[in-house]
From TrEMBL:
PANTHER family: MEMBRANE TRANSPORTER PROTEIN MJ0441-RELATED, MEMBRANE TRANSPORTER PROTEIN YJNA-RELATED. It is found in: Cell membrane; Membrane. Belongs to the 4-toluene sulfonate uptake permease (TSUP) (TC 2.A.102) family. It is a multi-pass membrane protein. This is Probable membrane transporter protein.
Length: 274
């Protein structure tokens, strides 16, 4: 029964995370903590183990989703690597900041900001993206309506924004996709499907780096991980397949709903820690 429950959890987290480019950790971490409070079978799970195990699972969710999105030709690999050049160091900096700062008030403020971003996405079509310089990266993509969409950014700007996103990810323990996907859509005019697929590539790279430190610290429960991984792998593929059938507007609506959920969770976490 325990294995079946974890398999379903990994599957559900990976499907939702893959559809919206969030990775799935936003579901796995709180779910494991809730199970640890209400079931003796999960009594050994601490917050550190929940985060460490979740990051390990996101390697498989990210890889599975990325492979599926690569087949759909939706991953902007070059942009993903450029963004990772900023988000990787940013995440490490955020972890360092976390040691010396009282994050309670910041959690509440950041949760409110995440909710604000959700509402900004609602009016994204009225917002002009950042102006692309002649030396910047320019791309085009044919969307589901057969329309050619142009997007782009200057690498320095992309790396800087990715660094800030990575910093918040490391500081507050949330997936970088919750901010990077909206940033790509709003600031760089990425088509939503492309932003999600590229974000999953980032999730894969980030999880590879982050999970190493947690493994070295003993923050991974390998028994639970082995039960979660099959669902995460299958869910990553299913999420990418479902995403393919959704319109851009539907993807954004789902993303907005999850951002509100993430924001409420952060605010609640901050209030309970005061």
């Amino acid at each position: 029964m325990e294995w079946i429950l974890l398999l379903i959890l990994g599957l559900a987290a990976a499907i939702s995370g893959s559809i919206m480019g969030l990775g799935g950790g936003i579901i796995i971490v709180p779910a494991l903590m809730i199970l640890s409070n209400y079931s003796e079978l999960f009594s050994g799970i601490t917050p550190q183990v929940a985060v460490g195990t979740s990051l390990l699972i996101m390697i498989f969710t990210g890889l599975s989703s990325t492979l599926a999105y690569l087949k759909q030709k939706k991953v902007d690999v070059k942009s993903g690597l450029i963004f990772f050049a900023g988000s990787g160091p940013g995440a490490l900096f955020g972890v360092w900041l976390n040691k010396d700062i009282n994050v309670d008030v910041f959690l509440i403020a950041f949760g409110a900001f995440i909710i604000f971003v959700s509402f900004v996405l609602m009016i994204r079509k009225r917002i002009k993206p950042l102006k692309r310089s002649s030396k910047g990266i320019k791309r085009s993509y044919v969307n589901e309506y057969g329309k050619t969409v142009h997007y782009g950014y200057h690498p320095a700007v992309g790396i800087t924004i990715a660094f800030v996103v990575g910093m918040f990810s490391g500081l507050f323990g949330i997936g970088g996709g919750s901010l990077m996907v909206p940033a790509m859509i709003i600031l760089f005019a990425f088509p939503p499907h492309l932003a999600v697929a590229t974000s999953m590539f980032l999730v894969f790279l980030s999880a590879l780096i982050s999970s190493v430190s947690h493994i070295s610290l003993g923050n991974v429960d390998w028994y639970y991980a082995m039960a979660l991984i099959p669902g995460a792998w299958i869910g990553g593929q299913l999420g990418a397949a479902i995403n393919r059938k959704l319109t851009s507007d539907t993807v954004v609506i789902l993303l907005r709903v999850f951002l509100i959920i993430i924001g409420i969770r952060l605010i609640y976490q901050g209030i309970m820690s005061l």
